[in-house]
C-alpha cells in the first residue's frame, strides 16, 4: 500500500529523514532535509555577510576597503561553493539516467564561479550587487534542480540563507 504522507521532511519528523521524491518519468530519488547541525552551520555561514554589511557602514575610512574586499571575496567563495554543489549532487547520482538538464547543471556550476570571480574584480558598488544577484540566481537554479537530485528538503534553508546573504551584499554595495 502506498504511503499517503507527503514527500520530503515530515512535520515533527527527524531532520535528515529520507523519503522518495518523484522524478520526471516517474522514477523516485531519495530526498533529505538538513540536520540541526547542518542548519546551524548554514546560519553560521551568514556571519561574514551580516557582519560585513554592518561594518561597511561603520568602520573608519582607512579600513573600509578591507571590509569591502573581504565581503566580496567571501561572497565569491559562497557562490563557487553553490556551483560546486551542483557538481557534487550530479556526480553522486547512482542512477545511469541523468536528470533532465544534467549537462546544464555542470555548466551552471562553472558559470556561477566564473561570474563570481568577475564580480570580485569589479568596483565594489557593482560587484557586490552582482554577487547578490548571483546568490539569487543560484537559488533559482537549485529550486528547479534540487528535487530531481534528491535535495528538495534543503530548499527552505537555502531560501533563508540566500535572502540574508543577498540582502547583505545589496546593503554593502550601497555603503561602498
Describe this structure in words.
With 176 residues, the protein is mainly alpha-helical. The chain has one domain. The protein contains 6 helices and 2 strands. It has helices at 36-44, 47-56, 64-91, 102-121, 124-145, 155-174, and strands spanning 19-22, 28-31. It has a two-stranded antiparallel sheet with strand order 1-2. Strand 1 (19-22) and strand 2 form a beta hairpin. It is globular and about 50 Å long. The N and C termini lie far apart (60 Å). Mean pLDDT is 84; it is low at 1-28.
Reconstruct the topology from this structure.
Elements: E1 19-22, E2 28-31, H1 36-44, H2 47-56, H3 64-91, H4 102-121, H5 124-145, H6 155-174
Antiparallel strand pairs: 1-2
